[in-house]
Predict the structure.
Amino acid sequence: MKKKILLCLGICALAMASMAQVPPISHIDANNVRGTVLGDGTVFLNYQSDDDINPCPSWEVPMGSGKSTVFQKSLWIGGLDATDQLYLAAMRYGQTASVQGGGQDYWSGPLSTADATLDLMTALKFHRIWSLTRAEIEQFKANYNNAAYQIPEDILTWPAHGEGDYAQDLAPFVDVNGDGRYTPADGDYPDIKGDHCLFFIFNDNYKAHTESNGLPLGVEVHAMVYAFEAPNDEALDNTVFTHYKMINRSSRDYHDVYLGLWYDWDIGYAQDDYVGCDVRRNSFYAYNGYEIDGNGEPSSYGDNCPAQVTTILSTPENLGMTGFMYHNNDASVTGDPREAEEYYLLLRGCWKDGVHMQYGGNAYPGTPGCVGPECNYMYPGDSDPDNIGTNGIAPNEGYNTNGKYWTDEEAGNEPFDRRGLGMVGPFVFPAGSVKELDLAEITVWKNSSASAMERRGEFIDQIISFFNNLKK
Ligand SMILES: [Ca+2]
Ligand SMILES: [Ca+2]
Ligand SMILES: [Ca+2]
């Protein structure tokens, strides 16, 4: 009997430990978007799908259509310590063959304020995504002291405070009685954003990094993903916002820190897309390379293909979007990064051999169409009239004037399966300091008079204005 119990305990511990390897999953679904969100803040890849032929869409828009605009995404963070040693966390596909379940740089849970570690019990407690609607919060406020009212589980368990060496203040809450403690029985409630909100905490220091092989920074990230129900506001109805609060729990001061927002978009059918960026609007995006998406597959958009935009709304040091580049699905010098040093090169606008991007063509010096000078933004189109991306220098060969603009199409590329990286940096990230990043993911549709690409600026401007008003 005793043996059986011990065996069971052993199996349970194993099951719990392996559960902590697979991130928790939830969906944001307040409006026209049903987005898959994983608790390590990284990928949309839908683990719930067991059908390889008709996988669940990762970023389904319109909701219920079975069509999707994003396949994978991830937050990259890289920086140097006082001795210029590199520390880096980054995910792409979590495919490292040597590790069961794939490579991993992020895990659920906060880090100890004493030594930036995480114990198994705390990891398990935080292995979840809290999901609440504005309506649930309003119901709570009206009914919390009514005996017949059942307080929702995610309000009761809202992770406002860490225990022991973990930070006292974690998830934000409205402290109705002002005693500094989160107590729902006193009427305290989660301080959510939007009409539907997901909250979760992840870190890069639970274990060694098996995706990038970078040294862990000791960063703890509080993520809030939120959206608004807005049937009469086309831009807002197709937008999901994310707020990242990043805390350096290590004892190291980092410098030359860069953040990357990495995407593998698939606008419906994956093999016919283009990418680009909007320098003035701190945005980058993917769009369909042809007027008709795909070849009639149920998951392709046909003649109504959207553009999928990421707008960087606020950044450390007000840097805005400092770069954009794409990379290919191959092992070439312009292909996928494999090691931490290669990820860090991309974050600084350099290819894997250390050569900086240059203007024109596919931004690799010496290749067709690449005319220079050095640049920070690939395929800016007409969005950079002041040549910010080339440090004020007009690009060679008359580019960026008289209708001669650098785009994926102008470079002579065939539409294909694209990935892209929006960058923010450099900044300093001292021990114990907090940095914040806000972004919006916007799906832009055509209407009877204009294409999705033509409407892109109008949608982005509206979302930027909405966000700025929210903060007031
Ligand atoms: Ca309180
Ligand atoms: Ca497509
Ligand atoms: Ca793609």
The chain has seven helices and 19 strands. The longest strand covers residues 254-265. Confidence is low (pLDDT under 50) at residues 1-12, 49-54, 97-101. The CA atoms of residues 358 and 366 lie 9 Å apart.
